[in-house]
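Appendix B, Record 12. Input sequence as logged:
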Amino acid sequence: MSQPNAVLFDELGPRGRRRVRVLTVASAAVLAVVLVLAVVRLAQNGQFAYDLWAPLVDPTTDEFPLVWQRLGRGLLWTLAIAAVAMAGSLVIGVVIAVARLSLGRYGRLPLVAVVELFRGLPVVVTILYVSIALPILGVDLSDNWFLAIGLVVYNCVVISEIVRAGVLAVPHGQVEAGQAVGLRPSQVMRSIQLPQAFRSMLPAIISQLVVILKDTALGAVVLNGVTELTRQGQQLRNFFDNALQTFFVVAVIYIVVNILLGKAAERLERRLSRSRTASAVAEEEEAVRV
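Logged structural output:
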C-alpha cells in the first residue's frame, strides 16, 4: 500500500531504497571526514588552547562574568530590537495589505510603488539609508533604534505581501456569504478574510519573524553604535583576539533563541489548529440540532 506522503511521486522500490541508504551513508561518511579534518586543522593551529576559550567557558576566570555580562546585554538589545521590528512590521504590513486590497486600481498605485521599492532593496542598504536620512530630517535616535526602524521598513512590505496572498486565497464564496448577511466590506475583511489569512499564512509569517531576529546582526556591519549581540561579539573578539571562539558562542546563542522562537510558533499553531477543530465540531453539532 502506498504511503500518504507518496501522492505526488512514485514510491521507491527495493532498489531505490537501497540506493538512498547507500547515498545517505556515503554522505554521512564524507561529512564526518570533513569534520574530523577541520577539527585536526583547528587543533594544529592552536584554536583549542585554554587561553582562547577560558573567558567564555571558565567561571573561575576574572573575565568570565564581564564577558557574559556584555553578551547578556547584547542579547537583551537584540531581543528588544527584534520585538520592536516584529511588532512594527506586522502592524504596518497588515495596514498596507488591507489598504492595497481596499483601494481602487489607481488608488493603490502609490502603495504598489512603495512595496516594490523596498522589496527590491537589500536589508543592509535599507538600514544604512534610514540611519542617514532620519538625522537629516532631525530625528535623533541611537543606532539601535535606527536598526529597528530599518528592519521595519524592509520587513513590513514583505509581510504585507504575505498577508495579501493569504487574503486572496480565502474562497470568494465566504466573502459573498458575508456580504449576503449584510456585512460591509471592512467587516468582511476584519471578521472573515483576515482571520483565515493569518491562519493559513502563519508558517510564512513566523519564518519572516525569525528572519527579522537574525537580521538584527546586520546592524553590526553598518552601524558602529549598536549594542546588539553580534556587535558585542565583535568587541570581545577584538579584546581577546579569539574570533572563532567568540563567534562560536554567539552563534550558539542565536541558534538557541531561534529554536525557542520556532517552538513557540509551533505551540501557537497547534493551539490555533485545536481552536479551529473545536469550532468546526461546535458548528456541526449546532447544525445537527437545527
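Residues 18 and 24 are 10 Å apart (CA to CA).
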